[in-house]
Amino acid sequence: MKFLFALFSAVLIAGSASAQELAPDVLIKNVTNEVLDIVRKDKDIQSGNTRKAIELVEAKVLPHFNFTRMTQLALARDWRQANAAQQKALTDEFRTLLVRTYSKALTEYKNQSIDFRPFSAKPGETDVRVRTEIKQSGAGKNIELDYFLEKSGTAWKVYDIEVGGISLVTNYRESFASEVRNNGIDGLVKSLQAKNKSGEAASVKK
Amino acid sequence: MFAFNEGLDSAIVKPVAKGYEAVLPSPIRTGVTNFFANIDDLFIGVNNLLQGKIPQAFNDFGRVAINSTIGLLGVLDVASEAGLEKHEEDFGQTFGRWGVGNGAYVVIPVFGPRTARDTVGLVLDVAADPVANHRPKRTRDVALVIRTISDRANLLPADKVVEEAALDKYSYMRDAYLQRRRNLIHDGNPPRDVEASADIEPLAPLASPAEAVSEPRASVSGAPILALQADSTVVTSQ
Hints:
The complex is a heterodimer of chains A (206) and B (238).
Chain A: H1 2-18, H2 24-41, H3 43-46, H4 50-60, H5 67-75, H6 84-107, E1 113-116, E2 127-135, E3 143-152, E4 155-163, E5 166-167, H7 173-205
Chain B: H1 2-23, H2 26-50, H3 54-69, H4 78-81, H5 91-97, E1 105-108, E2 112-115, H6 116-128, H7 137-165, H8 169-185, H9 194-197, H10 207-212, E3 225-226
Antiparallel strand pairs in B: 1-2, 1-3
């Protein structure tokens, strides 16, 4: 009978290998459902344990995000001013900030259901938007939650998220630009580090 | 003015909203939200009419008719369950739809971030607001207070996320407000900002608003008005 289990595992592994070539809307749907299933069962995350939410996001969500691209978009033209080391530092710090923000949002999740809007992409397209909607309980307007994905190689990677039309990435553009203007690229790295440190301290306290 | 609002919020409004959330069970809070949302639907319908979106307007008036009756004066949102979707419209959006640009970005006492256009819209929103026009004044005041607390309580989760996210809260709120309004005016389908999707090399117009906000903290120290031609950064893609 053991061979059956082995066969089953082989199929599973094959399945996850081909997950790389998932269509972008299927990818978003799978990840969303998987993550929310976990959150629904996890009392710690529901009661505001950001640390645990961060672990979940790092394991399940991070692999599908392209943080270099996100940082590039948030920095706009200042990106080119930064040398390779600075670009790496910026990307690392921005990743930490976004992951914590996203994780915090997960701890606020209250069983709202997610609607996946119809998706169609032309063949050969490498830049798409997948639309979802968070249904509010009561007479709240639904909140649009859109993912922007780019195809790099065979895998689709998210490079921007819009919540109700507010981009989590480009919303930083003006504050990053003014920080760079006043204190240079290193100044921005420093203020991101400071922000992440205070966020870290706050989540430890909880 | 931003600092004033933040102070007012953290000293009074937010603690009261937290107490409200702690004391009342969620179905009751939802009922309160629904009750005021139903009243709002009337002028949401009027604004949809003014924007020429006739089917949406009928949807909104239908919501009021159903929720005010079967929905027990709006406490239950039966219309949403029947497939009549909730919309979000106001006079500021109507002006935007008519082609009026943002104008300067301002932070108004109590009401918070607005553009010049939305400030004019706000004046009309308040003038038309059935709750603010309700008499006797005593019931009106009670209703206004409850609505404010209920609205604020609904924002508590968003609050925590903003605290987590914002490097500089003032500019984070400003840019989020501007993006949100742009999205609302286009009913969720604004033309995609070209340099957001195409290239890191920004287009020429980006330089001007960036200059205009060279001192984002200025308003905290007292200057409430900040010129920001957000519309100039908007370039239609394709």
